[in-house]
Structures are given as C-alpha cells and as structure tokens.
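haha ok so turns out i had the wrong file open the whole time. this is the CORRECT one, sorry everyone. sequence first:
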Amino acid sequence: MSQLKPMIIVMLMLTSALAGCTGTDGAQGTSGPQGDIGEQGPSGQNGIEGMDGQDGMDGQDGMDGQDGMDGQDGMDVYESRIAELEAELENLNATIVILLSNISGMEEELDAVDNVIEMYYMMFLQMQYQINNISSDLTTATTDLMNEINWVNQTVNWAYMDLSFADLSFADLTGANLSNVDLSNADLVYADLNGASLQFANLYEADLYYADLSNADLYYANLYYADLDNADLSNANLIYANLGYVDLGNANLSNANLIYASLGFADLTGANLTGADLTNVQWYNTICPDGTNSDDNGNTCANNL
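then structure:
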C-alpha cells in the first residue's frame, strides 16, 4: 500500500501538466491514419516519496491496578541470627530444666536407697547388740553354772542332768556326782573330773582332750567316739565301759580297771596300760599301744603294750 501512494501522485502531476499545454486552436482537422506504435521510451524516474501519514491518536490509558498491601518490615541478618540463637537457647533451657528434673528424681531415689541402707545398718547394729548381749548372757550363765557346780559338787546329786553340748572346758568337777548324766558332745577339754562319779553317764563324742579322769568311776559309761587323747585315766573304773572308736592316744590308763570293757576300733597308740586289768577286754581291730593291730596279735593287745 505504501508503494501505490507515490505512483498515484505522479500520475496526478502528469495529468495536470498536460492540461496546461492545451491552446485555443481552431477546429481539429480530420484525423490521419494512425501511425505505428513507437518504441517504448526509457523508464521514468521514480517519483518523490509521499509524505508520511499522520500518526494515529494514542489509545486511552487503562485503569491502574489496585495497590497491594504493604509488606511487613523484615529483620536484618543479625536480628534473624539473634532470633535463631535465642530460640536455640530457649530449647537448651528447656532441656536443662528436664535434666534438672531427672537429676532431682535420681537424688530422691538415692535418698531412698540411703534410707534403706541406713535402716539395714541400724538393724545390723541392733542384731549385733543382741548377739553381744546373748553372748554376754551365755558367758554369765556358764560362769554361774560353773560356780554352782563347783559349789554343790559335794552336796548335790547331779544324776540324770542333761549337759549335752555344754561347754565345760577347764571346769572343776572334782568328786562331782554325774552318774547317768548326759554329756554327749560336751566340751570337757582340760576338765578336772578327778574322783567324779560317772556311772552310766553318756559321753558320746565328748571332747575329753587332756581331761583328768583319774580315780573316776566310769562303770558302764558310754564313751563311744569320745576323744580321750592324752587324758589321765589312771586308777579309773572302766568296767563294762564302751570305748569303741575312742581315741586313747598317749592316754594314761595305768592301774585302770578295764574288765569287760569294749575297745573295738579304739586307738591306743602310745597309751600307758601299766598295771591295768585287761580281763575279758573286747579287742576288735584295735590299735595297740605299740602301733600293731589286735587282729594280727591273736585278737588282743595284752602282749603288745
């Protein structure tokens, strides 16, 4: 469209020029024959470009959009970091509170354990106190008993008394009447039983180590498994006494009366039987004073003293 405008203008200019050259000549004569069409002339120069068209009117401006809400003022970098640290600090404070609470609970539990330990310790002290009192009472009772025995030896009949497991070590029982007394498992170490009456007494497993039984009356006494090692039984009456499995090592049985006494499995190693009456003694697997066995000596130790 922009190229057609100049061409139209040029044609209008040419038409105007031709119209100006026309005169007032006479009437036109008869036209002659039409001549040949001449050669096409050179192309004409391009016409002057037409003027630019007038700019159109600017369109009406649209309405402005509604303003948005103002944004909230943000904190700068340091304020943000401070806020984060404060939040972390708050979390740490909360953790510390929890830990302190746990520690408090543990301290309460430890206090409870301490209370239990203290309670048991007090119970232990109380028991120890009671044991000490019992031990003291037992010692006092034993002493009183010994004093009473020593005091009544010559006047009171102790027959049939139960003294089993009694601690009578080093007791002075000289001349005591202990017939039919139960002294089984009693401790009579170094006890003085010189001249005591022990007829039918039960001395089963009694400990008579180094006891003085000289001149004692042990008629039918039961000394089964008793320990008479190094005991003094000189001049003692042991008629029908049961001395089975008795340890009489190095015991003094000089001039003792052992008629019908039972010495089966007894150990007489090193014992002194000088002047002892061995009539009808029962020898069976007995260790004789010289260390031989009665079974190898014609079932007797009479010839192996």
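The chain is about 30% helix and 0% strand.
again sry for the mixup
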